[in-house]
Amino acid sequence: MYVARILYPVEVLGPGKRVGIWFCGCPRRCKGCSNPELWEFNERYKTTPETVFALIKRLAEEHPIDGFTITGGEPMFQTADLRKLLGLLKEISDDILVYTGYKKSDLDPALLADVSVLIDGEYLEERNDDSLLRGSSNQEVHLLDAKKADTYRTYFATETNKIQNFFTSDGVVSVGIHRPNF
Ligand code: SF4
Fold first, then answer.
1. In b/e form, how buried is each residue of 137-165, taking b as 16+ CB within 10 angstroms?
2. Is residue 178 within 6 Å of ligand 1 at its C-beta?
3. Residue nearest to ligand 1 atom 2, measured at CA
């Protein structure tokens, strides 16, 4: 599998202090994509679900992890590895939010069994209008896990989009839902 970034604590892509996981590889090439550096399946970022999980498990020994946000890139281009990773991550937190450019109806329901919240649909730059957690307003939020639904309803009722910058050895990574021309 190809994973370009793992960041913590991400506090702008879902409730609490989360681990953000950015898959790389996305042939969609949406106009205005905020992560074009993640379009290629870059060999530098080749890894395994077990390696990713081992890193996160070490993190969890010393830091609270309220959930995971998985984005990209397009996580659904790596479904076998994604499914394996989701099963492992559940040991730490079963609050798992996943972004995809696909529609939920196009996905194998088995793949979504461990997903708490799915945000689906293609990114349309002309509909990037500050929708909370959504790159564009055509995207839909699916609260798949009834146990998490109240938490997310409250989150959507009380939060606003924010940007969080991480300083890494590769430079600054700006996390959040960015407006066009950011
Ligand atoms: S699906 Fe997401 S990562 Fe891929 S090109 Fe579109 S906006 Fe960018």
1. eebebebbbeebeebbeebeeeeeeeeee
2. no
3. 73
Q: Taking Cα atoms as reference points, which of 131, 180, 177 lies closest to residue 10?
A: 177
Hey, what are 116's tokens? 């708490």
Q: Of 28, 106, 136, which is best to mutate to test ligand 1, by the most ligand atoms within 8 angstroms of its C-beta?
A: 28
User: Do 144 and 117 meet the contact criterion of CB atoms below 8 Å apart?
Assistant: yes
Give the residue from 85, 112, 88, 89 showing the smallest Cα distance to 99: 112
Between CA 11 and CA 104 the distance in angstroms is: 25
Query: Tokens 């959507």 appear where?
Result: 156
The token pair at 7 is 């960041």
pLDDT of 84-129, one tens digit each?
Answer: 999 999 999 999 999 999 999 999 999 999 999 999 999 999 999 9
- Phi, psi of 15, rounded to the nearest 5 degrees: -70, 140
**Angle, helix 79-89 to helix 49-62, in steps of 10 degrees:** 30
pTM over 0.90: yes
Does residue 73's CB lie within 6 angstroms of at least one atom of ligand 1?
A: yes
